Predict the structure.
Amino acid sequence: MSDTPARITERESYIGRSVVRPQTARLLAGRGVFTDDVTLPRMTHVAFVRSPHAHARIGAIDTAAARALPGVIAVVTGVELARVCDGWVGTLAHFQGMKSAKQHALAIGKAAWQGEPVVAVVAESRAIAEDGVGRVAVEWEPLPAVTEPETALDPATPLIHPELGDNLVFSLELKAGDVEEAFRQADAVYTDTFRMGRHTAVTVEPRTILADFDPAEQQLTVYHAFQAPHMMQDILARHLRLPEHHVRVICRDVGGSFGLKVHIYPDEVAACALAVLLGRPVKFTADRVESFVSDIHARDHRVRAEVAVKRDGTILGMRVDDLTGIGPYSVYPRTSAVEGNQTVRLTPALYRFRHYAARLSVVLQNKTPMCQYRAVGHPVAFAVMEGMVDRVARELGLDPVEVRRRNLVTQDMYPHTTQTGYFFERLSLEECLDSLLELADYRRLCAERDALRARGTYRGLGLCGFVELTTPGPAFYGVGGARISSQDGCTIRFEPSGTLTCMTGVTEQGQGTDTMIAQVVATAVGVPMEHVRVLTGDTMVTPYGGGTWASRGAGIGGEAALLSGKALKENILKVAAAILGGEPMDLDVRRGAVVDADTGEVRLPLAEVGRIAYFRPDTLPKDFQSELTVTRHYVPRHQGFAFTNGIQLSHVEVDMETGFVRLLKHWVVEDCGRIINPRLVDEQLRGAIVQGIGAALWEHCVYDDQGQLRNGTLMDYLVPMAPEIPDIVVGHVETPTAYSEGGFKGAGEAGTAGAPGAVLNAVNDALAPFGARLTAQPITPGDVLTALGKL
Amino acid sequence: MDVSVELALTVNGVPVRRRVEPRQSLADFLRYELELTGSHVGCEHGACGACTVRVDGTPVRGCLMLAVQADGSRVETIEGIAASGELADLQRAFAEENALQCGFCTPGMLLTAQEILRRNPRAGDVEIREGLSGNYCRCTGYHAIVQAVLRAGGVREKGQP
Ligand code: FES
Ligand code: FES
């Protein structure tokens, strides 16, 4: 610390700065440690016999040939595994009437989707385990598959789980205002049915888990590519009947998550149960084909929407009917009903009309289970709402921007409660719209589009506004009985050298959580960022927390870090005052030194505080005890969610001969409250937008009527690659939440929330001169040509 | 049933001799036999590019090549190429542009980017995007990756190391 300047008058803030993520150096050198990279002594590998049928009774299982294979250690059926592992039911108590069937780690009696794990083969290598899988003989008795949500509730449709009485998982009716009256007063009513196809998250790192059980200590240690380690700890402890503190879950580097890696998967629980059964480490890594039939799928909605409007484009009221097919089980423990619930509640949220009625039906199918993927429910809600707004504009010959302006919730309305009960503290809908139009030079693009049309080039512009539900409070899962932490903690340990080791309950899967936390802590305490080391993802070390999902990392984890950092600083100042013989309030911590608060004169380097507090406390007053490890927790108590908002614009060109859509450029202006690291926020947005674009144009889990997935490889399930993706321009508005000290909100879902609607609207804008319009995604060239009447 | 065959090759400059099963992919061989876990396996069918390594100077997909096919070859992985300093400017540009989030696709991206710039340090946006067309990234949206490659190319062109 010899180079410490003698006087430091400014407190340094890292908040709002695009600092480089320190931990990327490891990843860039090939030194990341992903779960599949971990190897343990006596490690075994498991592979699964998966149901080849969408729906089938499981008859006799012959495992003898597999067991006889050299290198095979165990072959385990569902009945055998259930002896050490209890099944589960994915319902939430506050979703009235919700039901789902009991699910087991390995299917018992019946398989309910193609890909459901049925028998586990444990062997010395993955290859041998797979050989073993090929030698297990199962007597299947195929049953009729229920595939179409539309007919799932018909009396003629077989019941997937007869014990439930029907194929209805959850239904909901919402009513606000007087919708009938609104429709009576309307000058016009427009109706459309939107179909949002099934797709999946396709993280580049497949799901992976490595479970290690020590029978002597009864200790289960699990390495897991996962987003919520404490949730997994709780679940494994309860379902494997182990004391909670005997289960440790470690999430090191995680290769993308997006909500995919926050659910309970039977094959992963099976790997843990097998480790307990065998007393040896068991690793499971899904291969890509397995991923396609066993990772959660997403969306799969059919939404019928009706709007009642005045001639000037004012929306008077709206009716929505959402039907969604979720596969054979509601996924544990978050449930597959949350997606539809959020869809119907978010749909009208941007606009101020008060008359709204919605119906939701969540039904079973014999397809891969559907659950929460990035921006749960949002993209469906806003593609529908913004699609209807564009329809209104087109039918009435109005400007889509003007129709939005006429209906948006305005600045003078906050705090505002939406038609469906969501509370908006303060948003910036109009400001984001204005800012987007300017950023994109929207009017010029419109003029250019019109000019090109005359020359036979068909371009389109599509707007899609959105709100994003972030930083969920305790009412989200807690009241429904799911043991998912809505609070998070941050522990900071002051080291003798004056550096800080920080442990947080929120986790890192590439968002830059650890950088964001370090920025907040360094700012709060007053040290250079290089002096902060952040540890995440280890239930034995980090404070109890929910992990990273629903864009809760900054809003909850960031706030806990801020509170913890401030508390630590106070304690540092107490020690310094004890050393220096003054008052803590006359001192401050700046750039890693204790300084005189008024003059900035350096009084003590932090290393000196550490040396004395830890090694020479004998030199301090007898009754003084230093407290240089501090923990603070945070739970958002004041609002259900810290809502954020924004708007996107997509610019496309459609080839009317081939039906191909070319993306030209994409813009977003969003408001995530106080920004901690602009570059990280930009990249969250861009990544999320590309996931939304994928859903809009390419990504689709295609099934046949037998419930067989027809495109289970990356060769025929199309994900966006670099050449198809346009430049994405990002702009910001900052409206910090006043309910927390940091004012941070989330940013992870925003891109995915608005992109599909923007692309759909842009394509429809390009098709408008032909009177053609699409309301289904993905938008394939075939769909475009069909809409044009050419196919 | 020992059908393993002997294999001799150089990996990151070090001679390696092993007995392997003929069916083992080069990616699995590097990851599980040699514990070089920097090249990742995302799809095992040649679609994602996460497993990219260099064999005799050319980028290949480690999942599409069998280990036995690399007999006698010079194989380089991200660990070796990063350690040699060859990628230092690209790594810096990736860090500065935040051209990686989870980092799972990153080793393959870096090796591919290096090849793009080796062919043409002046590669522009379109050429870079075409060059990256076999590498799948789910986190970034590609924008930052393209910017990082452009930045590194620009520096190389000016003749700086
Ligand atoms: S793992 Fe080799 S290309 Fe995907
Ligand atoms: S950074 Fe996560 S896949 Fe590319």
In short: The first strand of chain A starts at residue 44 and ends at 50. The two ends of chain A are 74 Å apart (CA to CA). Chain A has a mean pLDDT of 96.
